[in-house]
Each structure stands twice: as C-alpha cells, then as structure tokens.
Write a structure and sequence with these properties.
394 residues; alpha+beta; ten-stranded antiparallel beta sheet; 16% strand; globular
C-alpha cells in the first residue's frame, strides 16, 4: 500500500481568524468509487502548523492526506493509476485555493471539496505575512511530502537498498543525519546477519536447495527488520543525546528516514520463529553492537547512547533501553506514538498473501518538490514495493 501527505504553505484560520489546532479535519474530496475505493474519500484536507518569518509565531497551513492504495499483486495495475488520479485532484484543489484570495475554504474550493464540521467557515488568509516557497529557487512547487508505504516483511531489505540510492547522505541534503543513519543501518544489519545466517551454508542431511532457500528467506528478514529497528531506536537515542547535551532539539520524527507506523514488537511477532529466537537470545549482544556503533559513528560528532533516557508524551513514559529491548525480544509492545508523538499507527497486516509492514518515509530527494517530482516518486515507490513483494513471496 502507498498513501501520501502533501503540505503547502497557504494559511488558513477558523471563522474568527484564529489559529486552528493541528491535524483538524477540514474537508474531504467527494467520494469517488473506482474498484476498491470502498466509498472512502480519496483525500482529506487537514490543518498543520508553520512558523511565520522573523519568529513572529506560528500559523495554520493546509495539508492533503490521502487514502492508501494497494500496489502489489492485482493492485499493481490499478493502485498506481489511483495514486496518479488522486494527485491530479489534489493539484486542482491546490490551484483553486491559491487563486481565490481571502475567502472561505468552501467558497475557494467550490464543488471540489465537501466541508467537514470543523471546516465550516474556515478562512484562507494569504495576507498574513507567511513565507511562500512555491516557485522559489530549489523549492519546486513548494510541496512538502511524506509517503506512507507498506512493504512485505521479506522484501524490506530490498526496498531499503532502493531507498538508500534515492536518499544519499551528502552535505546540503535535507535531514543529512537521518540519511546517514539509513546508510549505517545496513552495516549494522549485515553484521548481525553474518552471525545468524552466513552466506552459502546448509545443514548436512537436508536438501541443499531447500535449506539454502529457507536460510535466504530468514536472512532477508534479519536484514530488513534490523534496519527498521536500528533507524527507529537510533532516532530515539539521537534525540535523547540532543536533550542531554542541551543542543537545540529537532523534531524526533526527523531523526529517521523510515518511521515505523507499527510497534516494533508487533513486527517482531511476524518474523520467522527462528529469527525471533535468534534476536531474543542475542538481544544483549545486539544492543551492545548497536550502541557501540552508534556512539562512534555519528555524522559529525560522537553521540552517546543514554539507555535511561525517557520520552514522556502522554501518561506512560518510555525508557530508551526498554524500547530497544522490546524491539529485539518482541516483549511488551510499546506504541510508536508514545515515543514519536502524534501519528496514525497501522498494524502489520496481510495483503495479497504477504505480511506488510507499514512505515512513513520522512525524506528522500528534495525537501520541497514539484508536482512532476511527486508523480515520479509515486511511480518509483510503486515499482519498488512490487519488486519487494515478488522477492518476499519467492
């Protein structure tokens, strides 16, 4: 499955001219029912938050959040077409809003949107002094995009290989430290996989082909899951290091390229039983390997793994070491939003007979994109997911 979120700069207020709380659902695309749509809107328009220039406070901006589409198996033909259709409809709404002036959201969008209760009376506020990025050098059409992708458990390693090439860790790229961790995750997972399933080994007395095939599948699971684990654990640890060192804190979600939408322990429970046992029995060694590599291999500065660091967002505090241990052992399932804040969790689920792991891609390519770049991204992601599906089902 693939869904996406497109954030634009255009300001919006409530009917009284006040800031709207983030993630407020304002409007929806009128329901269209192609095969598989199930009557759900193709996208919703919600509020987000941006900073005004000169540290003059924040304002509410607009974001388009789409429904997910299956792009594997039978969905490989229909899903990409639906994503393209959705993107075109979002562009039509966006263009209408930008040419409307200071009017209500309902008046600006006309028949393109259906207003939800919180959007009744919402006002566009293009004259509030915000910084418009669309059309400025290097910012394309000013589209800030996150993609949500479901990838088969057995094909995640292949998907991450593709993603690494699209998210190079170079100076001047958006979120360079998160990109560095994406590349570092592969090294960590390879070390662990070599200890568990060395390449080219088979048990005496069994069919060599069958044994090597089973080991290859387990190896792919180890390589994929440990990269996902590494990026999420290290995002927590990087943020904890910032807090401990009293550095300016960044958004913890921006410490990783890949943010799991499912609790890591829930993904662990879907692994091959032999892989689960390996991770559980070796969790202390693997935690030490992760922490030691992590401490010595920050992008610029040496980082420390503060295992007693705590994230407290709601009522239940989460300790870094507990989060790490649960990921390696499949112990107590710790909600991702308890560490990373507001997000929609999606459990691992079967799709076309494959166990899909849902995650959000926080960055690849440019920070701000054009419509053409988003279209290319969606086509690439669809192909990568299908290729990962084919490998995972082999």
């Amino acid at each position: 499955m693939i869904g996406f979120e497109i954030e634009i700069s255009l300001p919006v207020t409530d009917a009284a001219g006040k800031k709207i709380p983030g993630d407020t659902k304002l409007a929806a695309c009128p329901t269209r029912q192609p095969a598989g749509a199930l009557g759900k809107p193709l996208f919703r328009v919600v509020s987000d938050s941006r900073s005004l220039p000169g540290f003059r406070g924040n304002y509410s901006n607009l974001e388009f959040v789409t429904k997910p589409w299956s792009v594997v198996g039978d969905g490989f033909t229909s899903g990409p077409l639906a994503l393209t259709d959705t993107l075109q409809r979002i562009r039509a709404v966006r263009d209408a809003l930008y040419t409307a002036g200071s009017v209500t959201l309902s008046h600006a969008s006309g028949a393109l949107l259906t207003m939800l209760p919180a959007g009744q009376g919402a006002l566009l506020d293009p004259g509030n002094g915000y910084l418009e990025q669309a059309g400025t050098p290097g910012n394309g059409d000013g589209l800030f995009v996150h993609y949500s992708v479901g990838v088969p458990l057995g094909g995640m390693a292949t998907f991450f290989d593709r993603l690494r090439s699209a998210a190079p860790a170079r100076e001047g790229q958006y979120l360079p430290e998160a990109r560095h961790r994406l590349h570092q995750a592969h090294h960590f997972a390879e070390q662990a996989a070599e200890q568990f399933v060395p390449r080219g080994t088979a048990d005496v007395g069994r069919s060599k082909d069958r044994d090597l095939s089973a080991q290859a599948k387990r190896r792919r699971q180890v390589l994929g899951y440990l990269q996902l684990l590494f990026m999420n654990v290290v995002a927590f640890a990087d943020h904890a290091d910032e807090v401990e060192q009293k550095r300016p804190e960044s958004n913890i979600k921006n410490r990783t390229v890949v943010l799991s939408r499912a609790p890591l322990a829930d993904v662990h429970s879907r692994l091959d039983p032999m892989v689960q046992t390996y991770l559980r029995n070796n969790h202390e060694i693997l935690t030490t390997l992760l922490a030691d590599d992590y401490q010595e291999a920050g992008l610029k500065d040496k980082r420390s793994f503060y295992e007693t660091a705590v994230r407290k967002i709601d009522e239940d505090p989460v300790v870094l070491l507990d989060y790490t241990t649960a990921a390696f052992t499949g112990g107590t399932s710790i909600p991702q939003q308890d560490v990373f804040g507001g997000m929609r969790q999606i459990a691992p689920h079967a799709e076309e007979e494959a166990m899909m792991v849902p995650f959000e891609i926080r960055t690849f390519g440019k920070r701000m994109k054009s419509w053409a770049e988003v279209q290319t991204d969606l086509a690439d992601l669809s192909q990568w997911v299908q290729s990962s599906y084919e490998l995972g089902m082999a």
